[in-house]
């Protein structure tokens, strides 16, 4: 059994880790910290876990995370970088669901997250936890920067085309839509039911933290300079993310048939348990991934055929966060990658 | 492996059966019928099942249900009664999720369902599939009438008090609220998004089919004449059911303390895997049961203490329908009752 | 023109007052206070009012409310009682949308609201602002305690039966359901979209502030001792309130026909512009009142006929709060009661 | 008073016309037809109109529409073209909310709507009913093709840039999102609450009828060849439309400052009562237009400044349909354009 610690288990990615790990056959939940909820049973705060998780939250001071095999950070940005060095020194693996170890470019990190990076030494060994693009490194990693929810969809959607050099790398447009749980479990007016229900809006159009993260990763697989216009929107639904990606085919690629385009994606993801390439022209719904680790992709090529429209859906809390983190953990501990992640999406 | 057939698998209870059975370790999905969708892959109609269910729908004429070990009917009322005799004669067990075998009182059935009962002979051996009240009979049954969603909450909520003879059996009030999926997957104006979202209403206040079903069952455990006022309401949510039950304590029971009341329920359900008696005074949310087979109960005794208010929540498609049916199947085939039903509720 | 001040205009009842008064032909918005938003244009906080309301919020210290003809308090409980004496002394009328002047029983107020009442002297002249039951007093009032949202539905639903002495006054049950906007515009986890959407729950079952308010008012019209069991619930919708009321007919009233029952209500509300008695057996939807000042009632008498079920719907922010307050204002200033309140409900 | 007929008043644009016209000071509702609901009071089908609209639906055969001053067609495509000639011959003006008279290009119409156009003669005099771009023609028109909901947002969003020749006219991208009411009031599985709530999807990505309509209109104001990639999506909300428009600045326009860009739009719409240009960088929410005829626009220019992102929101049933139709009617009858259209948006 893998002894598991969770730092900051009161948010949505924390409770989603608990949901997944509660039935993971090799997971032994050992400690879950929350300064504010010290001593409170997890199942009191989350009645959905009554009878399934017996732990109490404990103050970070009291929890002995050093005895864990792996610690997940489901915390605000900045927490993991402060605690990771000691844990790693004690032989504990670390998976950070926040942004501390996602970006190699410190300047970009500090600009977008408004804080100094206190743990630059570890960045070079930190591995970006997107298994479909980075599997071998994850297997050997001690320290994972788990991808952001939006970047997961953008990378898996653009990657096959970028790798093949078929599209203008500097004209990528991603029009993305997220459920409200992506904003976290915070006491803020802006995400109240009465403020978000029965309405729709864009936000952060001038710039969003997930842009530099995505560009950094896409640049690794593109021979040409990547540029990305990313527009996030808020959808009145709890879970779910839908990215509508627009890629301009190069003149030299205009002869590509739709069948060849489709095959490119099917080949890219043929062996992936958690990426489903749907038939050409499909319209995936976010609910077809609800509460599961699957991500679905469908291709379109409307109008004059110059623009490839890639539709990508996932559950932002699973493949977009906690499920992906467990997928990484499975790889890091030599387990089958799908262990504990076989949830069938909830429909309706 | 248990060879399983599903008749009428295109509705919500059908697809929920598929979701549950897809990861049930002893289930082998063998046939699923739909006259209209003959030849269509199940996963084409329900993309949430892509990669998880390989079957195609087949016309009832072609499907050889007689080779199954058990057949579930996820059909409109009246279908199971037509096909059950042949299946039973061939040694196939039958679990009907509709109303054909729920009520022993044929006159009541025919009045409320507006059809003649064509299979009265089998009624006497049909077992009402509520394991918490009927477990031993279910184990031996060949033919199950799976309870309605509302009746499950009303019975498990009132039963301990009625059995103990503490309340006026003829003054029961059940003010119940259901998510829209309870109305099924039908092309009807009244359950469109634009008709039901951001609104709330009662329906069927003058009389609802679940009243006679519930009274018949409650009468079996009550020494006194049962009468029930049942008011169903429609909530703008997909899944979930919340029943607010009002029971008047007899004068002779007014001395009962809240602790004794609480203990009565805890004792009644102590060994039940799928009934959770929450601390006295709790306010269970339907989402704490979402997509799982758990039903939660909480007790209140406001104001002058004469009325016990029992709050009961469940997922109407799981404990209120398909999960309960699989729970019955497990009992009928000698499996652990919880096999394949350990889903942790989805939150948020 | 009536010069109008609003204290605390940043909450939902405040912005709803603004929406209504923006097109009221006799209203002149003069001052709107918010300590926190001093100097901020109202339309910046509420873009829905761009081009419709030109005021800025001003700090309470700066706003000269004494020059107003009437001041509405859309504030937390306790604010109006502190400021009302000075305003009244300056000839300004006061309408409090909070609870400070709703209850004559100071002990009950202090018990349920957890604060000392600092303005007991004015209670005797304060008028409970429910026009349908209190019109003549409202016309002459200087100081109005505007009713709570739930109490409005419970009073208008039970009143005809209680006045006629037909029901057991001490066995009233009100099972009520409210949209989330009823909880106000507060930064609280419990009313986040991700916490309340796609779910349903009861709250405050052990006791709620609206119980003593309602009992005090109902007692005024009942010859017998009133007792009330009130169970509030939270519905995943923004606006709307649905009260399901259960009243037990006295033995002496069992001979009443349904037609007589219906006539009792139709007679009671025949001349009321904002109370709609629907045909016997109707199922009113909350959306049929959305964004309007109408309240609809429908009667049922199921099962053995002993219990009258009264369904009452309204928009909690209009007839349940700000619309009712404007209705009172119209009466206090000698205007037609419906002035500025002729909004047709929004459907769908 | 203007005598008004409505053909097909049972759908969402029909009932929205009724809501608006019920308080329009110059409107006299004279006839409303529905073959299926002949004789049924409008307020029985739509309780929101109880006490506000006294008409009954009448069969098209019985209704004497020729005595009306204007007839609105809130019908499926193809109905207006069959009845318009007779009405016009009798001096009745016609406003079609469907597509029959939107497009001058008959071949495109027949391709996208799958029917022959039976009334080609009238096309040349039909006026496209978008007042902000077409006001003078509307004033003189007898026959209006009222714009589609999506096209309204796309045209008003792209128009100032296209007119000024600042952007690549053949690389327009419109990523648009609509509430479910846009799909109409039809008994279809795909728009059930349980199918659309808590989910998000694109649809019609390969091609949508609103593309040729929009291109035809934009071409009229563009000196260069227009091409448009339009991707519609379905949002789990009742009303509201949000279009995210992407326009590529020409190299020659890259020197444009954001202030100049903003001024371009402010100048374009300065005198428009129903177009609100918000401050540069705003994020308009659909709810800020709910149930009103306002359309709001906000500009962004993220990243390298090459792409202008134009955010446009409206209520799809008002400015996107019935409100716009009444705006046209006002112009056609010499009324102030805003008559009867001063509804303040509903918030929350």
From TrEMBL, chains A, B, C, D:
Q: Which residues form a coiled coil?
A: none
Where primarily located? cytoplasm
SMART domains recorded: Semialdhyde_dh
**What is the purpose of this protein?**
Catalyzes the NADPH-dependent reduction of N-acetyl-5-glutamyl phosphate to yield N-acetyl-L-glutamate 5-semialdehyde.
Task: Please indicate if the UniProt record lists Lipoprotein as a keyword.
Answer: no
The reactions it catalyses are: N-acetyl-L-glutamate 5-semialdehyde + phosphate + NADP(+) = N-acetyl-L-glutamyl 5-phosphate + NADPH + H(+)
Q: Which PANTHER family match?
A: N-ACETYL-GAMMA-GLUTAMYL-PHOSPHATE REDUCTASE, CHLOROPLASTIC-RELATED (PTHR32338:SF10), N-ACETYL-GAMMA-GLUTAMYL-PHOSPHATE REDUCTASE, CHLOROPLASTIC-RELATED-RELATED (PTHR32338)
What residues make up the catalytic site?
149
> Which GO MF term does the entry hold, naming one?
N-acetyl-gamma-glutamyl-phosphate reductase activity
| Family according to the record | Belongs to the NAGSA dehydrogenase family. Type 1 subfamily.
UniProt key word Metal-binding: no
Q: SUPFAM superfamilies of this UniProt entry?
A: Glyceraldehyde-3-phosphate dehydrogenase-like, C-terminal domain (SSF55347), NAD(P)-binding Rossmann-fold domains (SSF51735)
Which EC number applies?
Answer: 1.2.1.38
The entry's localization annotation reads:
Cytoplasm
Q: Which organism is it from?
A: Undibacterium cyanobacteriorum
Annotated HAMAP family: ArgC_type1 (MF_00150)
Per UniProt, residues of the Semialdehyde dehydrogenase NAD-binding domain are 3-141
Q: What is this protein called?
A: N-acetyl-gamma-glutamyl-phosphate reductase
Q: Which InterPro entries match?
A: AGPR, AGPR_AS, AGPR_dimerisation_dom, AGPR_type-1, NAD(P)-bd_dom_sf, Semialdehyde_DH_NAD-bd
Q: Which UniProt keywords apply?
A: Amino-acid biosynthesis, Arginine biosynthesis, Cytoplasm, NADP, Oxidoreductase
Pathway(s): Amino-acid biosynthesis; L-arginine biosynthesis; N(2)-acetyl-L-ornithine from L-glutamate: step 3/4
